[in-house]
Structures are given as structure tokens and as C-alpha cells.
Task: structure prediction
Amino acid sequence: MPTWYHSAVLHGDKQGRKISFPTVNLDSKIWPEGKKPGVYSAKVKIGEHHFLGALYFGPRTMNQETYNVLEIFLLEFPTDKQIYGQQVSFSLHQFIRPVIHFQSLDQLKDQISQDVQDVRQSFK
Result:
């Protein structure tokens, strides 16, 4: 039985939108102790709706930030839907990769595209 974690959706800096990967930002304090930073495949629930997600926990390396963020790119999520303040639940499915430091937004975008493919594959 998977463990589910819960947080309200927080406002982020909307950087993911600029590279066509908008994310749901969550409270990083709910991250399970002992789990390593990086990208995970995740199951996500928002109300009655279920999604697969590419979850990232760690620092935003493009911005040289040192604090950890928790954000999820939801696969098949309608991009015009606003969910700020709503409760989101997620369970971790599989570790995909560790944190990588990127030199450009193009590198980041290419890696996220690969992460999404890897997330889809992890559920097959």
C-alpha cells in the first residue's frame, strides 16, 4: 500500500510555464525524511481526478538556489485549469534520476522531456 502525502497548491515563480512544463508547487516540508532528492514518477490526486506526474524535489539548479522545492509536472493535465489553494495528494512510484545541474534552459527542457518519457515507462 503506497504512502500518500498531502499539500495545498502554492504559487511558484511560473518558470516551468516558460519552457512548456508548468508545475504544481507544493510545500517542501512534507517531503519524506530519508528520501533522496531528484525526479520520481508519482501518482497524483486532485479531488476526484487522478494523474501521473514527474515529481521533482531538490534545489532549482538553474537559479543557483540552495533551498529545496517540491513540484510536479502533471501528465495529461489541462493547462488552462487553475488549482491554486486546492489540496493535492501524491504517492511516489519510482526514482527516475538524481538532481542535475543545468547550464541552459534548453538543457533543462530536454531533460524534462526525457523525464516525462521515463515516468510514462515506469508505469508500464
